[in-house]
């Protein structure tokens, strides 16, 4: 996977990551908003892309036709069996804003960790989860 769409979370290139395919296959219902996933590109099934889950089936997503983060009156309801994905670097990401909701059948797995370069070793945690005491 290369490209600027997941900056600053992931670099353009030169990183090694660990993908967890097993967990998603065993528990697909645990997919959450904020998860970083790998999937086959809806535009080219021979390419693997990495994006963040923004919407789950039944969610209402506000969509700006220009692809920017601006108030909008256009809405999309994510259909059953689909998700809404976006790159963290929205200005340089081809994602659901371009091709709409994505079939969950295209998902390969979760991005678990960055293991190279060692100075940037990271276990990816979902930023939308929290501990309730």
Automatic annotation (TrEMBL):
The keyword Hydrolase applies. This is Signal peptidase I family protein. It comes from Mycena rosella (Pink bonnet). Gene3D superfamilies: Umud Fragment, subunit A (2.10.109.10). The keyword Transmembrane does not apply. GO terms for biological process: protein processing involved in protein targeting to mitochondrion; signal peptide processing. It is found in: Mitochondrion inner membrane. One of its GO terms (molecular function) is serine-type endopeptidase activity.
């Amino acid at each position: 996977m290369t490209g600027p769409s997941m900056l600053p979370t992931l670099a353009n290139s030169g990183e090694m990551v660990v993908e967890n395919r097993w967990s998603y296959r065993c528990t697909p219902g645990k997919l959450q908003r904020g998860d970083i996933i790998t999937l086959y590109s809806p535009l080219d099934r021979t390419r693997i892309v990495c994006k963040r889950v923004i919407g789950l089936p039944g969610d209402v997503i506000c969509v700006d036709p220009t692809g920017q983060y601006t108030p909008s009156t256009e809405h999309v309801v994510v259909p059953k069996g689909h998700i809404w994905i976006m790159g963290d670097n929205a200005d340089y990401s081809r994602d659901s804003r371009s091709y709409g909701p994505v079939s969950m059948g295209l998902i390969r797995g979760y991005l678990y960790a960055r293991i190279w370069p060692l100075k940037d070793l990271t276990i990816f945690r979902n930023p939308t989860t929290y501990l309730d005491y």
